Amino acid sequence: MLLEKCRYVVVEGPVGVGKTSLVRRLAQHLGATAMLEKPDENPFLARFYRDPPRYALATQLFFLFQRANEVRDLTQMDMFSQNTVADYLFDKDMLFARLNLSDEEFPLYQQIYHSLQLQVLAPDLVIYLQAAPETLVERVNLRGQPYEYAVSDEYLFRVSRGYNDFFYHYDAAPLLVVNTERLNFEENEEHFALLLQRIEEMRGPREFFSRG
Q1: What's the CATH code of the domain at 90?
Q2: 3-class secondary-structure state, position 144
Q3: Can you spell out the DSSP letters for 11-26?
Q4: Residue 86 in 3-state DSSP?
């Protein structure tokens, strides 16, 4: 797979896994646009981490409308006029809805989701970053984002399991699953070069990359 020919690349993974820093590196390497999530713009997120049952629906709907607007903007601007690297996959919105919403709230969310009638383009490549839940907890604590202070270890474990299940069944685009336990793409040039090489070597629809 020639990375330079991928017009739309997505880097995904649970909070703390390093997807945003990798998106910035890939975008710089490709001369592409970096499309980043904006969790700090969600006024419900910090309250959700403190009281999930109360704020889950509001948090989820804010993210849904935020991402829907970005998808529409990309379509109108012809996103393929320049390569784009994103740190979220629109399809994963349903993953968090299933994890966080109650049995009463989820059907409402589904109605709103389907009423938007979004035409979401499939990526040319999805890079799924994995790490053990214990590693995610450590990384989240180290980076010290204010809205993440109340994130519980149990929630990170649930999110990690949800991602693994989601991508186990994902087949909408070529997928490279990357174990990041021994990889640091932000600070280690060798690790980043190994990732680029692994992408170039991809031949099948689902492949794996780890460093022993």
Answers
A1: 3.40.50.300
A2: coil
A3: EE-STTSSHHHHHHHH
A4: strand
Residue 117, C-beta contacts closer than 8 angstroms, at least 6 positions apart: none
Q: Give the Cα separation of 163 and 95 in Å (integer).
A: 8
Q: What is the pLDDT of residues 144-160, one digit of tens each?
A: 676 666 778 888 899 99
Q: Tell me the C-alpha distance between 46 and 31, whole Å.
A: 34
23 close to 11: Cβ distance less than 8 angstroms = yes
b/e map 169-194, b = 16+ CB within 10 Å: ebeebbbbbbebeebebeeeeeebee
**What is the number of structural domains in the chain?**
1
Per the structure, the complete domain to which residue 45 belongs is given by: 3-209
**pLDDT band, very low/low/confident/very high, at 76 (cuts 50, 70, 90):** low
- Span of 3-7, 79-83, 141-145, 165-169 with lowest mean pLDDT: 79-83
pLDDT for the residue numbered 79: 55
